[in-house]
C-alpha cells in the first residue's frame, strides 16, 4: 500500500494516465491525493473529472483556483477566459453529476501516517498565523458553503483581493474570501502576512518586501510538512518540510507524483513529461 501526492493536472488526462501507469497505481491498494487544479488550460478536463470520479475513495482531491473557476463559470457568474478549456464539461450530458462531485471536495486535507506523522495538503498556501487545526477548520467553513444552498451567492462574492490580511474577527463574504485566496491563490506575502496577488515569478526573484508564504517568520505550521501545488514558475520543491508539486504540466513541463513510504521522509519522485498545451506566459 502506497500514498501519493500529484501536482496540478489542469486538464491533461493523457499525462495523468501515463503517470498512473508509471507508478502502477492500484485503487484497491493505494491512496492518491491531488493537490488541486484538476481542470482548465489543458485539452481534456472532462476526461480528468470522469477518471477521478471513477477512482472512488482511492482518489482524494483538493480544490484549486481553476476548479472554483469552473464552478463559477458553470453558474453563469463569470465568462470564460481566453485560455479556458472548460466547454466540454459545461456541455457534457453528465455535467450536473461532475459539478456536484467537484463541489463536495475540500480545500485542505490532512494525512496521518501509521507512525503518527502528519502531512498537511493545500493547493496554494497557508497564512502564517494559522495552525494546522485552524487551517482545516477554516477550509471547512468554505466547504460547508460550497456544499450548501448558498453556493451561488458565495461564488458571486468570492472573487477579489481584499481583505489581503487575516483577522479572526472577519465575517461573511470577506472572511470566506480571505480563506479561499490563501488556500487557492497565494504565493507571496509581506513579512506581516499581507497577501500579494500581482507576483507569480519564482521565489528567488521575489519582489522587494515580499517572501514566499512558506518562508514567513513565525509560521505556525512550520513544524508540519506541507504539500502544495499552484506555483508552476517555482517548480519542484523538495524540502523536508515542503513538497511543491506543480511542475508546469500544462506549459510543457512535467506532471509529478511523490510517493511516501512508512514515514514522510521516505519519498520517491515520479514524473512524466507533458506536451505543451498553452503558450509560455
Verbal overview:
With 281 residues, this protein is an alpha/beta fold. It has one domain: Purple Acid Phosphatase, chain A, domain 2, CATH 3.60.21. 27% of the residues lie in helices and 17% in strands. A hairpin with a 6-residue loop joins strand 12 and strand 13. Helix 6 (132-146) packs across helix 8. The protein is globular and about 45 Å long. The mean pLDDT is 96.
Output the strand order for the largest sheet: 3-2-1-12-13
Order of helices and strands: EHEHEHHHEEHHHEEEEEEEE
Mean pLDDT, all residues:
96
Shape: globular
Rg over alpha carbons: 18 Å
Approximate strand percentage: 15-25%
Oligomer: single chain
Count every helix, treating DSSP H or I runs of 4 or more residues as helices: 8
How many distinct beta strands? 13
Low-pLDDT residue intervals, each spanning 5 or more residues: none
How many domains make up the coordinates?
Answer: 1
- CATH level-1 class: Alpha Beta
Largest sheet: 5 strands, mixed
Distance between the termini: 39 Å
Give the fraction of residues assigned to helices: 25-40%
Specify the CATH architecture. 4-Layer Sandwich
Keywords, separated by commas or semicolons:
8 helices; 281 residues; Purple Acid Phosphatase, chain A, domain 2; five-stranded mixed β-sheet
Quick structural overview:
The protein is of the alpha/beta class and 281 residues long. It contains eight helices and 13 strands.
Amino acid at each position: 500500500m502506497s500514498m501519493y501526492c500529484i501536482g496540478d493536472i489542469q486538464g491533461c488526462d493523457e499525462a495523468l494516465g501515463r503517470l498512473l501507469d508509471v507508478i502502477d497505481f492500484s485503487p484497491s491498494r493505494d491512496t492518491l491525493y491531488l493537490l488541486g487544479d484538476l481542470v482548465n488550460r489543458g485539452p481534456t478536463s472532462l476526461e480528468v473529472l470522469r477518471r477521478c470520479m471513477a477512482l472512488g475513495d482511492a482518489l482524494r482531491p483538493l480544490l484549486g483556483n481553476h476548479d472554483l473557476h469552473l464552478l463559477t463559470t458553470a453558474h453563469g457568474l463569470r465568462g470564460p477566459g481566453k485560455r479556458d478549456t472548460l466547454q466540454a464539461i459545461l456541455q457534457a450530458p453528465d455535467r450536473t453529476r461532475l459539478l456536484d462531485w467537484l463541489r463536495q471536495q475540500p480545500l485542505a486535507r490532512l494525512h496521518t501516517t501509521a507512525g503518527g506523522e502528519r502531512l498537511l495538503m493545500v493547493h496554494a498556501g497557508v497564512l502564517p498565523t494559522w495552525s494546522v487545526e485552524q487551517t482545516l477548520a477554516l477550509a471547512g467553513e468554505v466547504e460547508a458553503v460550497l456544499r450548501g444552498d448558498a453556493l451561488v451567492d458565495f461564488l458571486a462574492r468570492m472573487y477579489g483581493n481584499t481583505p489581503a490580511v487575516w483577522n479572526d474577527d472577519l465575517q461573511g463574504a470577506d472572511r470566506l474570501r480571505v480563506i479561499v485566496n490563501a488556500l487557492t491563490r497565494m504565493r507571496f506575502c509581506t513579512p506581516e502576512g499581507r497577501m500579494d496577488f500581482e507576483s507569480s515569478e519564482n521565489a528567488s526573484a521575489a519582489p522587494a518586501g515580499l517572501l514566499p508564504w512558506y518562508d514567513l517568520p513565525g509560521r505556525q505550521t512550520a513544524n508540519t510538512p506541507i504539500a502544495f501545488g499552484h506555483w508552476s514558475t517555482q517548480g519542484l520543491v523538495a524540502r523536508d518540510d515542503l513538497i511543491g508539486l506543480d511542475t508546469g504540466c500544462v506549459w510543457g513541463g512535467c506532471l509529478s507524483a511523490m510517493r511516501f513510504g512508512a514515514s514522510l521522509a521516505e519519498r520517491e519522485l515520479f514524473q512524466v513529461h507533458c506536451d505543451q498545451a498553452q503558450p509560455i506566459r
